[in-house]
Amino acid sequence: LSEKLDKALHSLKGHGKINEVNVAETLKEVRRALLDADVNFKIAKQFTNSVKEKAIGQDVLTTLNPGQLMVKIVKDELTELMGGDTVGINLGGSPTVILMSGLQGSGKTTFSGKLANYLKNKKTKQVLLVGCDVYRPAAINQLQVVGEQIGVEVYAEVGNQNPVEISQNAIKHAKANGKNVVIIDTAGRLAVDEEMMTEISNIHKAVTPNETLFVVDSMTGQDAVNTAKAFNDVLNFDGVVLTKLDGDTRGGAALSIKSVVDKPIKFIGTGEKMDAIDVFHPNRMADRILGMGDVVSLVERAQEQYDEAEARKLQKKIAKNQFGFDDFLNQIQQIKKMGSMKDLVGMIPGAGKALKDVDIDDDAFKGIEAIIRSMTPEERSKPSVINASRKKRIAKGSGTSVQEVNQLMKQFDQMSKMMKMMQGGGGKRMMQMMRG
Ligand code: GDP
Ligand code: MG
């Protein structure tokens, strides 16, 4: 899709000359590109019409940069078509009950796990996954595997064929066991049928979910829209989850669903792994479709990967006793980014004690940077070479006292000892926290 739109917009982007004829040509191309991506015919037509209207309204033809303005109008219109703003899920209720609906194979079970993991990482959420796909024993098993992987309890009742009962019991179980989010994974069929609709509707009535999500495979194109309509007629769901938006993406479903059922897309699934979940951003999706590249997402992902690589490097250094002042400085900057040291210490099991007499407060950071910057590269990577005369030089260079240099040396020593000590079980956790 993006290639085609790119081509369609190309003539407008570069060349300054623009007239009514090539605006019309461009819009025709845009419409064809949308249709190719399985966008509903009516919606594609509506879309190009309203782009045209806006283009005329904003007097595209007389502006200095008509191409760019046109691209902006198309992008804004696409964003609007996909819902405009990002919409979150309702986490009210105690417990919050989230119901998954959708066809078999759409990705309900996988997404249930992803969402559980996503909420669990928000710390305040204690999640219970509920297996209501009672027809295939393998389905419950699949959910249990997912639960184990992410460390979330799975509620299931072997032998019970009544999903309404199971979900009601699960909510009781959640209340009794301090869970504040219940995610109910249900059975789907390969196509819309009455039995499935009755069943999901019965569960829906019995548990009155705070959030009912319709999960749909984005590769199914136009069918996705029909399925969405069928489920929405019965459930009046709150939001849509678009799965399998990884790899060869077709934007068609995203473009059409919102306008047909008038429900926001809330999440996207971008892979089989448990962390392949993203909040849906209409404007980013519009960028992607227009081939401008999903820059914001890319930057975020790159940042994540960078941090992970850094943490791994650091772990190796600690293991090999190569942890130096440059790393120390780096870590301090990470910690500063994360807020107060006290909170941090509180989060490390067992480390509170080790750090208690290490006097690192926010003010202490100020001089540290100056001191480390006055060290030579050799001194930074091999602190043991720092003798009395070097200390004197460093103090002078950084505008501090030998006493302060000594204090930093002591802090550094304790920190590296602690990190070494935590290389076992706690180390990983520490690294995770350092990453923020
Ligand atoms: P359910 O029948 O609705 O519960 O669907 P499942 O969760 O079992 O998913 C069906 C298949 O799609 C599985 O093989 C999943 O691994 C795969 N799947 C689910 N979500 C995604 C996704 O976002 N990307 C990709 N590539 N595969 C997915
Ligand atoms: Mg399933």
TrEMBL record:
EC number: 3.6.5.4
GO cellular component: signal recognition particle
BP terms from Gene Ontology: SRP-dependent cotranslational protein targeting to membrane
Keywords assigned by UniProt, alphabetized: Coiled coil, Cytoplasm, GTP-binding, Hydrolase, Nucleotide-binding, Ribonucleoprotein, RNA-binding, Signal recognition particle
Self-association and partners: Part of the signal recognition particle protein translocation system, which is composed of SRP and FtsY.
Reactions that this protein is recorded to catalyse: GTP + H2O = GDP + phosphate + H(+)
Sequence similarity: Belongs to the GTP-binding SRP family. SRP54 subfamily.
Residue ranges of coiled coil: 292-319
This protein's name: Signal recognition particle protein
Limits of the SRP54-type proteins GTP-binding domain: 264-277
Single GO molecular function: GTPase activity
InterPro entries given in the database record: AAA+_ATPase, P-loop_NTPase, Signal_recog_part_SRP54_M_sf, Signal_recog_particl_SRP54_hlx, Signal_recog_particle_SRP54_M, SRP, SRP54, SRP54_GTPase_dom
Biological role stated in the UniProt entry: Involved in targeting and insertion of nascent membrane proteins into the cytoplasmic membrane. Binds to the hydrophobic signal sequence of the ribosome-nascent chain (RNC) as it emerges from the ribosomes. The SRP-RNC complex is then targeted to the cytoplasmic membrane where it interacts with the SRP receptor FtsY.
Cellular localization per UniProt: Cytoplasm
